[in-house]
Structures are given as structure tokens and as C-alpha cells.
Amino acid sequence: MQAGTNQSLPVNGENDYYEEDAGIGAALAAEMHGAPWYLSSVAAHMVLFLVLLMIPVSSPDQIERTVVIPVMTIEEPVIEDKVVEDMTPPDKPVDVEVEKQETFEPKISDIVPDVTTKDLDIPDMDPTDDVVGAEEIGSTDAMEQFNDNFTQPAVIAINNNGPSGSKGPFGWRRRGTPTQKKRITKRYDFPPVTSAVNALNWLAAHQEPSGNWSCEKYGGAGHDTSVTAMAVLAFLANGNGPGAGKFCKNVEKGVEWLLSQQDASGRVGPHRYEAAFGTMALAEAYGMSNNSWKKKLKDPAQRAIDYAVASQCTAGGWDYAPKSKRNDTSVTGWWVMAIKSAKVAGLHVEKGVFEKALAYMQAATTNEGSVSYAGDYAAVGNVKAGGGSIRMSAVSLTCQYFLGGNVNDPKFGGALRKVAPQGMNADKLDFYLWYYQGLGLLHRGPRSGEWKNFAGNVKVAIYGTQINKGKYEENRGSWNPDTDPYGAKWGRVGQTAIGALILSLPWRYEVKA
């Protein structure tokens, strides 16, 4: 129909449209003059009806739809943004930049007296008895994958730049749901989470009302500060902190007792191992505490670290007395762990302290991985390398990692080759060695032959020797300290605490492959 065609014409054809309508009207008028009146009336109405049909009409619904549709297309990207934001994993690690601090040399006389080790009773913490070889437990086949290429090692997330993790310092431990820990232990082919929790249950059942753990009551030599700090560290390693976690009350009581042992200089208990353990426990408790506890622990934890810095020996290590000419590699290892925990927790630690400690550890280590145990070293240049046991090699390996050492350094490779193939003897425990061995090999990653060999041995010698029968109020969850070279010193409490720390390795520190 021609009229229908004209409806779709553009505005430019409007004149042609009206000219055609005028011709049709004239023809109809001529016809109507000769028709009866009723036919004329019908014709007139038909003409009017046709004219109305040719007038274009826009529906209100059509106008409304043309307005609504653009609005919907504008809102859609906003909805998509919200979905993407909500799907972002909440546990994504966040790197925190720590403000650089100026290096200064503290005056030791302002914090602790200048003490020598001449009259100190220094126990032998570096027995020279033979260390079990890899052939005792586990296969060395995995070690065939070992090579000298350390250009891309696994890197521990706790580095010299400060905190890491999705929930602040030590955030990896906060991912503590049973399901998450099961995934981690499966990835590292480690014993089940319940093994570490059972050890914590034993410790919880044997804590003194005053908050400490008695070393002597359970077969030790009276080192209550050490074993209390070790027990607190074991709870912290599993995600329990002041104000958080199933065992938070045990942590709080233990920390309160450690605070009662701190003197005016900041030292927590006797110098030597005790103060190092206590300092490390306060630093990690501070890093894992809630707001009220964080405020309460900040000053004591910082004073403990200030003492650690001030008591560092000239050659870079630590000894049984502060600022001594003698450097003890075994003692140094625990102090390094303490200052590392403090750095991660956000406490102030002089950068030079890490550098000096690394210089000492490298000077004491040979390219073959042998490390000296102790000696009178007034300066790094006088440090004699080598001569110590495999335990000192494990300490050196761990410390080089935690102090930011160069993994391409021959001394790093030497220590790794010394430590990696060491096996475990279920009849002769050596938790001291296995603790540092595990810390060092953890950096190699779960797929490395070194870690696989270690994890296989742990299942037999540590998980396999844990007491899993009876009641926690008795010995369930603990380890007998009788066959361990240090069992007579730290007793069942220390043995169980360090056993829990070893079993917690996969989730204690985040490792990025």
C-alpha cells in the first residue's frame, strides 16, 4: 500500500506525502456529488478513517522501552565489578614495606654489664658423637635429584623486608582451619595435623598454675624459662596467640610468666639459651596478638630485642655472656631466630645486626659445609671455620637463609650438602638436629628430593615415636626424652615442645617456590 510506504519515509519526503493526500481528496469529492446522501455519508466516514490510519502514532510503551534499555546497559558493568571484587581470594599475601632504619652501635654498658665467660658453667651443646646417616631410615634415592644449581631456590616469605602474609605477621599460621592444614600437610607429605595438636594437648595438660612449665618435674635440669618459651612457641606455631585460638589461654598465661622473668635490661631469664628462647617467644606473641595484647607486649618485646642487639659479640655471633669475645654457633642460632621473629613482627631491629650475624656464620662455615662450634673471635677476620658437628652445619644452613645469605655462595651449598642426606634413628632421637635440618630444607620446597627424604624420615622417627595411647594428663602426645642427647637438659616438656615445632614446619612459615 502506498500510504504504508509513505509512513516510513524520512523527514525530507514530507512535501510529497501531503501532495498525494490532496489528489485523493479531490477525486472522492467529485464522486460524492453524484451519490445518494447515505452513500455520501458512508464515503465521508471511510475517507476520515483512512486519513486517521495514515497518521503515524508512537506508543507510550515504545518510548518507555527506549529509555529503560540504555539505563540497564549502563548499570551492567557496575554489577560485574562487584562480582570480580567479591571473588578475590581474601588470603592473598600482601607485601609490606618496612621503613629503613639508620644503623647505630648501641652502648652495651647502658643495657647490660660487660661479662666474660671465664667462670661460667658452659654445658656441651655440641656433642661430637656420630650422627645417624641417611641409610638408617628412608631412602637416599631422592637425593639423586640434588645438584649445585641454586639460582632459583624456594624463598621463605619471612624475609629481611618485614612482615608477609594475608593476615599480618605470621599470617600463614592463621590459615589454621583443619581443612587448610590438611592440604598443607598433604602437599608437604607430612604427618597429619593431629600429631602436632596432640603434643599441644599434652603441654596444655601440664602447664603450671603460675603459667610456666616445670622442666625438672618432667625429667629436665631446671631450665623453666627455656621450656616455657619453647612451649609458647609451639602454641604460636599452630596459630594460637594471645586472644585467639583454641589454646589462647595457655599462651597468655605462658607469656605473662615470661614477662615476670624480664629484668630492667630487657633480658628474659638468664643469658645463654634461656634469654634467646624468651625473646623469640615475646616477639612472636607480639606479632600474633590482638590490639589489647599488642599494646601490652610492644614495650617488653622491644626491650628484649634491644638487649639482643646490645649483647651481640664483636664478630657477629652471640655467646653465653653478652658482648663476649667468644662466639658460640649453637647459641647464635637461637638468637638469630629471635631477631628474625622480631623483624617479622614489626619490632625495630638494626639492619647491621643481620649483616654482622651473617658475616660470622659465613666465616665459621667452610665451602664443604663444616662449621666451627665456638671460639675466641674478637673480629670476623679471626673466626676459624669448620670443626663442628653436623648440628652446627644445620644451624649455619638455616641462619644463612633467614639472614638473607646468597644461595649461590659455596658455603651455602656446602652446608646444604652436609645437612640434606642426614637420616633419623627412631631409637636415638636428635630433635635439636632435626629441628634445624627441617628449617633449612623447608626452603628447598615440597617437591625437592631433599625435603622428600626428610619428610619420609619424620614419619618414622618423630611421628612414629610419639606416644598416642593413654591420657593427655599422663604421657599421651609427648615424647620420651631418654634417648635424645639433650633430653636430660630440657626433659619431656622441651622434647614435646620442639617435637610440636618440627611437626608444624609446613604451616609455621610460608614458603614460596
Give structural notes.
This protein is mostly helical. Helix content is 50%, strand content 2%. The chain has 19 helices and four strands. The protein has helices at 2-7, 14-33, 37-54, 60-86, 171-174, 178-187, 193-205, 224-237, 248-260, 273-287, 291-310, 329-345, 351-363, 390-402, 410-419, 431-442, 449-461, 487-503, 505-508, and strands at 155-156, 326-328, 374-376, 511-512. The strands form two sheets. The chain has a two-stranded antiparallel ribbon with strand order 1-4. Strands 2-3 form a two-stranded antiparallel sheet. Helix 11 runs antiparallel to helix 12 (329-345). The longest helix is centred in the first third of the chain and has 27 residues, at 60-86. The chain is globular. Mean pLDDT is 76; it is low at 1-32, 57-124 and 127-166.
